[in-house]
């Protein structure tokens, strides 16, 4: 009897991931509606990221943690195994995988937001003491928001590896060593692997150009800004006009809706994907109608 896993097609794994994402979005949408009706819009705005994290964890708890296939895995006829042998992943591995998959993006976002507030507040003393140097503090204030781009680049590098080797789509599964095996041997076909390797090469080129463009943009801004005035302005607390109505913090990467209201880029993008309307005046808004204001802040 064959005791080693059958590597599924890359396309089957993509179908699995897409199907699970569809069901998780449906669960999140229904959870948001229930929470908003019970506690109101203001409470939902304050805890929307926590709700998303709990919603995704709930989906994995009733499937993966319970020893069952997810709906995407059932649809694609694949099963999780530990390494290359036909062994069901231990409950410890599954707990770690689910925690990393659902909580890591949330924890990174919260940590960066907390650190940004500390750095922006001139009344807060940082440790060690050399971090309180105005120039170092300014550099930290500029670097922390850009760390999200670093996380994005890491995820895209991992996607390139998936297209080349077709094994791990999620970083959480790579860390815990959880792979997929095809239920039927005929689902393991290498006919499309070359196409995905081409797609991986194109994704890698796009990633390289994105990094170069980001580096060029940062260098250009650094060469044109006034050191003295920018140091003061970046460390001053934001006035009410400078605050985002969604996160209630100083607005970053200002973006306007067709109705003229201003928000942070990430805040309004998340809101529009869920609600499809302006948070202030309720005018219908499509993601393509958002306008990023270059050099506005």
TrEMBL record:
<keyword id="KW-0472">Membrane</keyword>
<keyword id="KW-0813">Transport</keyword>
<keyword id="KW-1133">Transmembrane helix</keyword>
<dbReference type="InterPro" id="IPR025654">
    <property type="entry name" value="PEX2/10"/>
</dbReference>
<dbReference type="InterPro" id="IPR013083">
    <property type="entry name" value="Znf_RING/FYVE/PHD"/>
</dbReference>
<keyword id="KW-0962">Peroxisome biogenesis</keyword>
<dbReference type="Pfam" id="PF13920">
    <property type="entry name" value="zf-C3HC4_3"/>
</dbReference>
<comment type="pathway">
    <text>Protein modification; protein ubiquitination.</text>
</comment>
<dbReference type="GO" id="GO:0016558">
    <property type="term" value="P:protein import into peroxisome matrix"/>
</dbReference>
<dbReference type="InterPro" id="IPR006845">
    <property type="entry name" value="Pex_N"/>
</dbReference>
<keyword id="KW-0812">Transmembrane</keyword>
<keyword id="KW-0863">Zinc-finger</keyword>
<dbReference type="GO" id="GO:0008270">
    <property type="term" value="F:zinc ion binding"/>
</dbReference>
<keyword id="KW-0833">Ubl conjugation pathway</keyword>
<keyword id="KW-0576">Peroxisome</keyword>
<dbReference type="InterPro" id="IPR017907">
    <property type="entry name" value="Znf_RING_CS"/>
</dbReference>
<dbReference type="InterPro" id="IPR001841">
    <property type="entry name" value="Znf_RING"/>
</dbReference>
<feature type="domain" description="RING-type">
    <location>
        <begin position="244"/>
        <end position="282"/>
    </location>
</feature>
<comment type="similarity">
    <text>Belongs to the pex2/pex10/pex12 family.</text>
</comment>
<keyword id="KW-0808">Transferase</keyword>
<dbReference type="GO" id="GO:0061630">
    <property type="term" value="F:ubiquitin protein ligase activity"/>
</dbReference>
<keyword id="KW-0479">Metal-binding</keyword>
<dbReference type="Pfam" id="PF04757">
    <property type="entry name" value="Pex2_Pex12"/>
</dbReference>
<dbReference type="GO" id="GO:0005778">
    <property type="term" value="C:peroxisomal membrane"/>
</dbReference>
<keyword id="KW-0653">Protein transport</keyword>
<keyword id="KW-0862">Zinc</keyword>
<protein>
    <recommendedName>
        <fullName>RING-type E3 ubiquitin transferase</fullName>
        <ecNumber>2.3.2.27</ecNumber>
    </recommendedName>
</protein>
């Amino acid at each position: 009897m064959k005791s080693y896993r059958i590597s599924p097609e890359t396309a089957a794994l993509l179908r699995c991931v897409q199907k699970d994402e569809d069901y998780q979005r449906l669960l999140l949408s229904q959870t948001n509606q229930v929470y908003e009706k019970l506690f109101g819009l203001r409470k939902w705005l304050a805890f929307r990221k926590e709700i998303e994290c709990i919603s995704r964890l709930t989906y994995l708890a009733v499937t993966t943690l319970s020893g069952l296939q997810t709906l995407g895995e059932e649809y694609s006829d694949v099963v999780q195994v530990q390494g290359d042998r036909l062994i069901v992943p231990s409950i410890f591995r599954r707990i770690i995988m689910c925690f990393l998959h659902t909580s890591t993006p949330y924890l990174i976002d919260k940590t960066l937001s907390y650190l940004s507030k500390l750095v922006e507040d001139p009344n807060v003393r940082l440790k060690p003491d050399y971090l309180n140097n105005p120039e170092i503090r300014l550099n930290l204030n500029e670097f922390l928001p850009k760390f999200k781009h670093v996380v994005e680049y890491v995820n895209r590098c991992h996607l390139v590896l998936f297209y080349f080797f077709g094994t791990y789509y999620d970083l959480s599964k790579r860390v815990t060593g959880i792979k997929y095996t095809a239920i039927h041997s005929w689902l393991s076909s290498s006919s499309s692997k070359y196409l995905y390797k081409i797609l991986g090469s194109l994704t890698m080129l796009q990633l390289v150009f994105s990094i170069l463009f980001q580096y060029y943009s940062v260098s250009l801004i650094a060469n044109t800004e006034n050191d003295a005035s920018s140091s003061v302005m970046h460390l001053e607390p934001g006035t009410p006009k400078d605050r985002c109505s969604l996160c209630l913090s100083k607005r970053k990467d200002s973006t306007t809706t067709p109705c003229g209201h201003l928000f942070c880029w990430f805040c309004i993008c998340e809101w529009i994907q869920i609600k499809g309307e302006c948070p202030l005046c309720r005018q219908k808004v499509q993601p393509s109608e958002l306008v990023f204001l270059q050099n506005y802040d």
